[in-house]
Design a protein that fits this description.
The protein is mainly β. It contains no helices and 11 strands.
Amino acid sequence: MSLCILTAGKVVTLTVAAFTLSWTHSVERTHWQEDWKVLPSGLQIVEARVKGSGAGMEPPEGALLRDGWWAYTPPIKPQPRLVLAASGATGEGWTLCTVEDCRELGKAAGGTIVLEPCEGSSQPR
């Protein structure tokens, strides 16, 4: 499978089956991580982790505390796409990591970033 990253009129294609998306909460300054699979039916979250709790970000019932992170599996179906919008309030954007490398997305406030499975699987668009 391939993941397409659409930002500022450009498309970047990554040939990956999974990725981790991480960021810092703009108010609480708490770190978040999500593990995702790239499937033909969409993007499926595998696990979410939050380093602490705070306003509007309490770990859900059933979350387990592992190495200082509250870990849980959100009960949602595969999503056709993820739309990210940078607030600019944290001084950083999202970090998207694959088995090969990590890249920062959306550091500056403003435009949106769309993550979605690429049509035609591993063929660049």
